[in-house]
Design a protein that fits this description.
Blueprint (H helix, E strand, L loop, with lengths): L7 E6 L5 H13 L3 E6 L9 H8 L17 H8 L2 E7 L1 H9 L5 H8 L7 E5 L3 H5 L1 H12 L3 E2 L3 E4 L5 E5 L3 H11 L9 E6 L4 E2 L5 E2 L6 H12 L3 E6 L11 E4 L3 H12 L4 E4 L6 E3 L20 E3 L3 H6 L2 H4 L4 E8 L3 H12 L3 E6 H4 L4 E8 L3 E8 H20 L1
Parallel strand pairs: 1-2, 1-3, 3-4, 4-5, 8-11, 8-13, 11-12, 13-16, 16-17
Antiparallel strand pairs: 6-7, 9-10, 14-15, 17-18, 18-19
Helix pairs in contact: 1-2, 1-8, 3-5, 4-7, 9-15
The structure holds cytidine-5'-triphosphate.
Length: 407
């Protein structure tokens, strides 16, 4: 997915061992469709060569403010004017201090100072030893660069190159890509609290076996990510799936439909948007054996009885919060035929403002999908596309409906 298509990023490297991760970050930017201009400080060149960064970005690297390649000899002006963003990764403690002071004695600091602040955002990915990170001077400087308009991307925690363990590591390249992509998304859902259910449920029969389905959770996870990118606070109630939690999303793992109901009803008390994508089992075994159900050698098969699970979406849609229009509910319908007809009927049955239909067998486990949006007055098709693209479009559709629906 070309998430950064059309974007031009100036990637600034300062002195730190995390420079080795910047090679991968540069590659990810290029793969995501961005053009990348690398600028390195003298200290960064101690850790990685400009040759590596040139090969990965496909552009010669700038290291000096006296670079004669620029006809006007002003690389600090020319480079920053073209950028959609300047990303400093890694950004050392020293460089943060230099930004705070407005220093301009090398190309990168000069360029950051000379950037047109209103149209060229500065994003910084700090990287340092945990003691340096925790030092009051660093924390003070970080607050100051943020107050001066920079976006501080946060740090990872764990083993550090110095052998110590703690906060201050640069985020991994994939995490940085996710955060930087999110940065460019319009914050249409700022101030909203979005609750998403995702994945299958697992209804245990005994300690070994149970009943589940093919839902991969990918659509729900994409929706949680898209909601977060759009500026919402997001809670994701996930059935058993092996997917990484989108950045900045709080995740609650559950197993059965009953667990999912409990977690969802609780979180729904403070949510303002609820998107039910989970493929909740309609039935669960009437009894749950404490021990494994064994064959008795007679050839007789066990008889299983089922009871119906609660409809989570319906329960939330009927809550006081949803009925008083403080909570906008969106349902999904996994159908195998007659999508439009079933989707319309399901929306009315569940009493929700928006229902999203899709053909189950064509989407389970896939990375892309096609959706049909059904509300009280219209239907709209979102043609086949990656699930994240569809999730972003869905967030726009939800945001557009909120003002009218709330009054
Ligand atoms: N859903 C739910 N709890 C259930 C069943 C469904 O929250 N016990 C939600 C799903 O997350 C989805 C919507 O209801 O948003 C529709 O789910 P779907 O399985 O398509 O429909 P059902 O209501 O189960 O109806 P049917 O099986 O008759 O198609």
């Amino acid at each position: 997915m070309q998430e950064l298509a059309g974007k031009h990023i100036v990637l600034g490297l300062t002195g730190g061992i995390a420079c080795y991760k910047s090679a991968e970050l540069c590659r990810l930017f290029v793969k995501a469709g961005a053009t990348v201009q690398v600028v390195m400080t003298e200290a960064a060149e101690q850790f990685i060569t400009p040759v590596t960064m040139q090969a990965l970005s496909g552009r010669t690297v700038y290291t000096s403010q006296w670079d004669a390649r620029e006809p006007n000899n002003m690389p600090h002006i020319n480079l920053s004017r073209e950028a959609d963003a300047i990303v400093l990764a890694p950004c050392s403690a020293d460089f943060i201090a230099r930004l705070v002071q407005g220093r301009a004695d090398d190309l990168l600091s000069l360029m950051c100072l000379a950037r047109p602040m209103e149209r060229v955002p500065l994003l910084i990915a700090p990287a340092m030893n945990r003691e340096m990170w925790a030092h009051p001077a660093t924390q003070r400087n970080l607050m100051q660069v943020a107050a001066d308009g920079a976006t501080v991307l946060g740090v990872g925690s764990g083993w550090q190159a110095c052998g110590e363990t703690g906060d201050g590591r640069m985020l991994e390249p994939a995490q940085l890509l996710e955060d930087i992509t999110a940065f460019f998304v319009p914050k249409l859902l700022a101030g909203q609290k979005v609750l998403v259910t995702a994945g299958p449920t697992f209804e245990p029969l005994d300690p070994i076996r149970g009943i589940t389905n093919h839902s991969s959770g990918k659509m729900g996870f994409a929706i949680a990510r898209a909601a977060r990118e759009a500026g919402a606070e997001v809670t994701l109630v996930a059935g058993p799936v092996h997917l990484p939690t989108p950045r900045g999303v709080s995740r609650i793992d559950v197993l059965s439909a009953q667990d999912m109901l409990e977690a969802t009803l609780h979180a729904a008390q403070s949510a303002s948007i609820f998107v039910a994508t989970a493929a909740v089992a309609d039935w669960r075994p009437a009894t749950h054996s404490e021990q494994k159900i064994k064959k008795d050698g007679s050839g007789k098969t066990p008889v299983l009885n089922f009871v119906e699970n609660a409809d989570i979406l319906l329960a939330v849609a009927q809550s006081e919060r949803a009925q008083s229009r403080k909570l906008f509910c969106v349902g999904f319908a996994a159908e195998s035929e007659n999508l439009a007809e079933h989707a319309k009927a399901k929306r009315e049955r569940k009493g929700i403002p928006l229902l999203v239909g899709n053909i189950g067998p064509l989407t389970f486990g896939q990375d892309d999908n096609a959706l049909l949006l059904v509300d009280a007055t219209s239907t709209r098709e979102l043609p086949r596309a990656p699930k994240l693209t569809l999730a972003r479009e869905l967030m726009t559709e939800i945001a557009a409906r909120l003002p009218d629906w709330r009054v």
